[in-house]
Amino acid sequence: xxxxxxxxxxxxxxxxxxFQDYCPNGLQVEGRNQIxxxxxxxxxxxxxxxAAVVMHADAVLVHHGYFWRGEDRxxxxxxxxxxxxxxxxxxxxxAYHLPLDAHPELxxxxxxxxxxxFATVGHFGQQNIASYGQVMCNISLNELGEKIxxxxxxxxxxxxxxxxQIRRIAWCTGAAQSYFEEAIQLDIDAFITGEISExxxxxxxxxxxxxxxxxxxxxxxxxxxxxxxxIAQQFGIKHHFxxxxxxx
Length: 248
Description:
single chain; 248 residues; Udp-n-acetylmuramoylalanyl-d-glutamate--2,6- Diaminopimelate Ligase, Chain: A, domain 1; six-stranded mixed β-sheet; five-stranded mixed β-sheet; DUF34/NIF3_sf; DUF34/NIF3; metal ion binding; metal-binding; GTP cyclohydrolase 1 type 2 homolog
């Protein structure tokens, strides 16, 4: 397929025009026009890009791309090496941040909810990217932690009483600990995100609402993978997902 065809399709599918984000969404680095193979991953790190080159990628699709607000705008050091590798091999870089978090079917939050068998009731947080709902049946906080460990292949950090019964739940992948207090107002039993801040421990203990830090990378693997698979099925191109270990 053509590069601009893919760009237009993704931009419309993820409705990028409605989001105010910390980075540009869409085509960030232009490569060759014809795309036969796309490689997806969470972050466009050098390790990821080198693996994509080995897989003969024509384009890469990530959640964490480049040109973040407040960053140095010069192409030097690490940033230069990454972009130089893309340009040397004429690989296009597509990156979608908040639009990928929020998509109702392919998004990070939708996919995490599916993996953990949550029933989504509504949305909250910045531009409504976070979700809240219910677990399919009452389970204890300890049992929920075990379920998350199996689904994400990563043991979460849990703040709360292990025997606490969990019915109502809120979640937002990545670094969404700042939504915790807003989530508490939804009368939930537990909140899941990727990272935890020092003050969130105290908020969890004093509010009685459990806080589950399940890993920034671990919680954001599923959206970009689902999007890549969707593209492959829609346009008949090859898709490979690369999952590089990240302890955070």
